[in-house]
Amino acid sequence: MLQLLSALGLLGTMLFVLACFRVRQASRAWAGSGPAATGRFPRCEQLLLWCASASFTALALSGFTVRLRDEALTGYLLLLHVCCGAVLAATFTLALLVMAARFGFEAEAKTRTAYSWLHRLGFWWFAAILIGVIATPLVAMLPLAGTHDQELLVALHRLLALAAVVLAMLLTRAEARVRASLRG
What we know:
Fumarate Reductase Cytochrome B subunit, 2 domains, 5 helices
């Protein structure tokens, strides 16, 4: 039963990715060429970012509050943590696909928002750290690592998660500054 649900979840994620690409291609064909053709999808991006932010927040709260109380992550809280981790992995991957061009270092002339090179670098550092946060528990579940290595992977997962939270706060503040400068 679990394998069937996992397969359906993977198929649903792949269909959503294909649907996002179809919508993007249709939008480019409809808009023609010029600045409108390189426009983004604010509603799609906002939905992805809200889902990613909500799951990221739930993961941080469930993971760090347990560590602060020096308890183990078990029971329903563990199920919530794992489910939110899957949601974060899917939404982060889709958001990365949608937003990567805007945060490329050669994209300064193409976008109307002038992100600084530090903001762009922070975005890519956040992406790399979040990939590490997602990959460490997955590698720990494989039969490749012994008990000691699994404990090291869990510790690395916690450190990368802490770095991701700090970097997310810094990037959120930088994004607010960019939006404020565009308004004023």
